[in-house]
Request: fold
Amino acid sequence: MQNFCTLYIVRHGETEWNVKKIIQGNEDIPLNKKGESQAKELAKKLRHIKFDVIFSSDLIRAKRTAEIINIEKKLIVQTTKALKERYFGKYQGKSFAVNNEMIKLINNLKMFTGPGLKEVETDESIILRLTTFLREIAVAYSNKTVLIVSHGGPMRTLLIHLGFANYDNFTEGHINNLAYIKLKSDGVEFFVEETKGIKIKKSS
Reply:
């Protein structure tokens, strides 16, 4: 595809809150040892790809993942709030296991609305900030290859928005740490070329 930017959107490595199934949201939780190792393994797998620029969420788990992948590439990791995880308000720091209402909404609803959940960022808000950023990058880096490190929530919401999956077959937790989406974009359209570490249920 001529005049298209290639975007690799990667989820950060594992944190202790991932292991304990605690809602992270915008809480700044660092990678654990496994998360650091996962990032090093992905760095090896992506070694052959010449990235022209690297962007990351400004949360430390994503930024550190980007830094590890970047060690041999020696680029500047640029951070932005546009790539942050969903803001979960009062649910941040609480266990998924005791928040059945939250799990139901994450897995089944398009928008985070309703009693007690008004402070939680909506899918509409995530898509607006994410696609605006991705379109700007695609135009600025036409015919270039860009590495982006973000979070499971925005990645899942993006794939559903693009029609690659839906709320029924792509529930929360189906994006592994260090999973990635390879996209092509001309600044208007997005085309999913490849996914790794992403599990989408097959239609029955």
About this structure: The chain is about 30% helix and 20% strand. Confidence is low (pLDDT under 50) at residues 109-116. The beta strands are 5-11, 53-57, 77-80, 145-150, 175-185, 190-198.
